[in-house]
Amino acid sequence: MWWLLLLITVVVVAFHSASASVIESTWEVEYKYWWPDCKEGIVMAINGQFPGPTIDAVAGDTVIIHVVNKLSTEGVVIHWHGIRQNGSPWADGAAGVTQCPINPGETFTYKFIVDKAGTHFYHGHYGMQRSAGLYGMLIVRSPKERLRYDGEFNLLLSDWWHQSIHAQELALSSRPMRWIGEPQSLLINGRGQFNCSQAAYFNKGGEKDVCTFKENDQCAPHTLRVEPKRVYRLRIASTTALASLNLAVQGHQLVVVEADGNYVAPFTVNDIDIYSGETYSLLLKTNALPSKKYWISVGVRGREPITPQALTVLNCVNATTDSRPSHPPPVTPTWNDTERSKSFSKKIVAAKGYPKPPEKSHDQLILLNTQNLYEDYTKWSINNVSLTVPATPYLGSIRYGLTSAYDLKSPAKKFTVDNYDIMKPPANPNTTKGSGIYSFPLGIVVDVVLQNANVLKGVVSEIHPWHIHGHDFWVLGYGDGKFKPGVDEKTYNLKNPPLRNTVVLYPYGWTALRFVTDNPGVWFFHCHIEPHLHMGMGVVFAEGVDRIGKMEIPDEALGCGLTRKWLMNRGRP
Amino acid sequence: MWWLLLLITVVVVAFHSASASVIESTWEVEYKYWWPDCKEGIVMAINGQFPGPTIDAVAGDTVIIHVVNKLSTEGVVIHWHGIRQNGSPWADGAAGVTQCPINPGETFTYKFIVDKAGTHFYHGHYGMQRSAGLYGMLIVRSPKERLRYDGEFNLLLSDWWHQSIHAQELALSSRPMRWIGEPQSLLINGRGQFNCSQAAYFNKGGEKDVCTFKENDQCAPHTLRVEPKRVYRLRIASTTALASLNLAVQGHQLVVVEADGNYVAPFTVNDIDIYSGETYSLLLKTNALPSKKYWISVGVRGREPITPQALTVLNCVNATTDSRPSHPPPVTPTWNDTERSKSFSKKIVAAKGYPKPPEKSHDQLILLNTQNLYEDYTKWSINNVSLTVPATPYLGSIRYGLTSAYDLKSPAKKFTVDNYDIMKPPANPNTTKGSGIYSFPLGIVVDVVLQNANVLKGVVSEIHPWHIHGHDFWVLGYGDGKFKPGVDEKTYNLKNPPLRNTVVLYPYGWTALRFVTDNPGVWFFHCHIEPHLHMGMGVVFAEGVDRIGKMEIPDEALGCGLTRKWLMNRGRP
């Protein structure tokens, strides 16, 4: 196959080359009117742009971003999704975990080294600001790229609601909870179509008219202009608030070569599933015909797809701009064909040359994911604790020993109801709220088993893509039903599990992962679905607490809650 | 007349009686679904209530309110409108002026003495949060009340939009500016009707149906239950974002006895004008018939009244609850009958016993109010400066001498274009932005002349109710056209001008006021129309800067911007 020639064994190296440079920018964050899906809405823009500017760095570079909060009354932070922040945990950008929100009118400077090549992105991590459009791509190139290709494109995928995030937050936090519903549109690089369809002419009598775009329309799709018979790298990231997606390129096969910033053993597919928080690189060899056009289509999986496909076009350079693809867009696989999705997930293994995971773990968490009630508020809970992120960032409370800032008692390492039936709604739907964390010494190997279950009502188990901050983990395996400790560990792939920062937990199943506590700091680990996280679906890992206690953390990261008070009083009699 | 017997000469006394008590509450601020005008919206509620709880204090009491910010991502403050905050300027609750916004998840404690009896209210003073419904009544009773009445009612008046304040803020801050339009509804004690009319049965074929309320409907008007032939005190406050209002009680005359917490020489009217930021007490003697009902109506003045009247009912105790007033509600005076409004304003003079103002002033500001453009953003400016409130509160920057926190250069004391034609759109529409303030020594007498002008386009001059913090001022007079320095001062009423904290500036006219700099602190003085303030229509007075430099200010009030940095570094090498 053509791509076999392109890929050489990968060696994972962290680059701190002498030629490393500094990428420095000032970003003003504010609301702006925008037409993401041809209907006017309000987005969170960076320097007047939506999505935000792409960071294009080389491994080893130092990135310095001065974030200026130009919002009226809201705080803001930015999380650099996929960057491990080794030595700079305060720059991870998770409000309440690693820093205080930046106040309106103030500036906070993120400074970190992008030590490893990969396809990443960044996004808001306070309230549901990511869902308001605060995101953009973060590409880290390898100074010695092993992949060979002739050109590349970034495709940042997101979903879009017409209701404001403030209204959404209230809806989800209300008693009874009001569900926000499915997104109105899917966006590719911030562009979608709500009122029209690009492909409607295949479907006369359909509900929507064919789109007609004017020049500079904010919702007009970017066309990918390509040469025939060349190899392109598509860098795909999903920052959806809710939707699990499938992406296909008409008439082309896709070679998956990277996932979450790590090379994987290349494999060929017709389409990929991509969950919120994941990134992929795909190699695509364009067909021979120089005047053809092909749909790139993005559709919903895992939930009943009320939202129409997002479409853009792969356009050979000789194709006229006014012509259209001659066939309908690829059909998204059936939304509930979970077996198909699992089959895709299982194809992903590490590229040659990646270190294997340690054979044994020192600690194991079994985290039951449940939907529950807390005083009739709907919550998502992990081992029966729904996370309440405190006003004082954990990183600061641990640094300065402020023990009243959060619950000192850790949540349970395993779910305590041994006979919990994951196939049914919870027998006792009541949960607890808390801000307790899991604390690990440095240098140990931790296994986490994510265990899915039935939701509160009906026969439903939802998809949860779990994302870890400050780390990659090895994905050791997936299983159906209830995890059997002492048994299912034997099925783990310890030979070539992929390194990732996000992994999907399938309905009624379990997912096992392993990581090494090699990064002193406090790290969020949570479902990347924005409403689920808003409803408490996350846990927090503190790593090397003694090291955190000696860490240099900029005061500006801790100017809220009890750390502000502590810092104001230090050195006083 | 009946009321002559009720009113005795008033002596103004500040009470710090030995029997003074402490009123202490914890208030949780959060968004909540509500039906203020029979259509579901989102309000900023306090302890789950809209409007917020009424504070009912006695002069001399200490009020302690622990405000807990339960919002997701927004800061919050509360301003105690009408309370002078003598000795506690940090508790005035003006974000960026006297304190930092309270961060989500944090608690800030306001503690102040209500030293003087009066009808007051409180409200949000950050972004446009007042317009989101963050308000309530603040009644301070006199231990020796001179007025005699049999009962009392509070009527808190507001206006309501269906668009969120976040969208409104963006609209006003956009280029070009998008006007938010007139309010959808007027509310009395947080209750109005959008889809129906209480009085529609007088108007068959009208646009709206007669309201039918269910029990506990949040939009069902409170009925004022009264006995015949008794005297009631109506305490009225207007916290509208935009609307100037007129209030009438069908079949009853109203005796105006108090304005903004100061007794006025009683006078009788059929209706009152009330501008945003003003309060009044009215005495009303109920008619003799024990089974009658009367409309209380509130309508718009000063702007073309697109918004329907707000209505509630004065119900004699024997009237059946299902019957209706037998005649249509009072008709609001013509919106643009400014002469009628002026005539009302001029009736307001101080009650006997109030001290006269000093005869001379030491300083004079002539503040031209103009609508302008700043880089094509629409702004309101005072002497060609549109106020930008800094991220660091003035009170803190002055306390700690942080001279880079705001523009040290004061804005001009007079408008510098001598031949400025107030009757026409500005010849040069461009303005400047700034954060400079006016600084006064303690113990001097300051005159302020507010000068109105034509707006940017067309032949229009708008109403601006100006509100001062930390003070009452004497309203010395009103005039038409351009103020003539050295001439118009001779028309000032120095005999019995009313003491107020809010005064209206009429279209194309001027308003003169005088105050004594007897309250060390930093005090906002601004147009009380929320969108106008959002667009820069205010100035700031610093009073007794040397005293501020020695003041005790709680650190928690200054936990943002440069003061946070300063406080974190004090006492360090």
From TrEMBL, chains A, B:
Its cofactor is Cu cation. Its EC number is 1.10.3.3. It catalyses: 4 L-ascorbate + O2 = 4 monodehydro-L-ascorbate radical + 2 H2O. Keywords: Copper, Disulfide bond, Glycoprotein, Metal-binding, Oxidoreductase, Repeat, Secreted, Signal. Residues 1-20 form the signal peptide. Pfam families: Cu-oxidase, Cu-oxidase_2, Cu-oxidase_3. The keyword Secreted applies. The keyword Disulfide bond applies. Residues 29-144, 153-315, 415-544 form the Plastocyanin-like domain. It is found in: Secreted. Dimer. NCBIfam families: ascorbase (TIGR03388). Belongs to the multicopper oxidase family. This is L-ascorbate oxidase.
